[in-house]
Amino acid sequence: MRTLVSFARWALLLVTLWCPSAMAAAALPPIALWSNGAPGSEGKSGEETVRLTPQGEHIVSNVHRPSITPYLPARDKASRAAIIVVPGGGHRELWMDHEGYRVGQWLSDRGIAAFVLKYRLAKQDGSTYTIEGDSLPDVQRAIRLVRSHAVDWDIAADRVGVIGFSAGGELAALAATQYDDGTRDAADPADRESSKPAFVALIYPAIPQNMNLSKDTPPTFLLCGEDDDPAISQGVPELYLALKRAGASAELHVLTEVGHGFGIRDSNPPAVSGWTSMFYQWLDARGFLKN
Predict the structure, then answer these.
(1) Residues spanned by the domain of 73
(2) What is the CATH number of the domain that holds 192?
(3) pLDDT tens digits for range 10-32
(4) 3-state class of 132 per DSSP?
(5) N or C: which end of the chain has fewer CB within 10 A?
(6) Closest CA to 144 of 71, 70, 196, 211
(7) Domain contains 146
(8) pTM (two decimals)
(9) d(CA 224, CA 234)
């Protein structure tokens, strides 16, 4: 793992020296969440598969080696906040562009370190993985791993959050309510870190059942479209009310005449694309962007 991280830092330095203004949007090489393989994936050696939509978007499946792809901002622009980006795809596949790489680039361009997650898929045909047994641990491990390299990536360990889209939003919500402080004497430095996100953003999320909400639930940004499936368009406002009743901090946005799956796309109209500015303003208001 240290070798991969060192290579990522070397690549970052090289790009910075060559072209400082372009570097912020550049993704670094993916980093495996577990250097010796993910627990529960033993014996699974199939390669990832990628298909392209007619619009040229990359859809990934068959993930057995979960990873994060870093998008690190220029150091002179860094806010020291970090976000794990969790794409959706119904737990059957991962829509890596408009809910992953584009989000990572957008955050990096604004001084926020982003780490786009590929996680194991519980509902892909023939999968033996489960959401809470494998997909959620991938998110938790990503949080721990980023925290364990906070110095390497110029990140504040207490400002590592998660943003999730659709099925990825379900995982982000689970991460906000199922976490631990880490194991202090663990051999793996990442396992010593807390898996609790500092904040979560749930973008048109599938909503888990029986969430254990409290005043200690991380601050939550909620966003959906009013024309989404009622489980989301009504469920997200209901989740906001549940968070407030529990004493947690939350902000809610429901976009007029908008459906599901918009993410960050060039084709989004201004009324939709403006959600990113609302999210950035919320992060700033909560104090996560103060260097």
Answers:
(1) 2-285
(2) 3.40.50.1820
(3) 444 433 333 333 334 468 999 99
(4) helix
(5) C
(6) 196
(7) yes
(8) 0.91
(9) 9
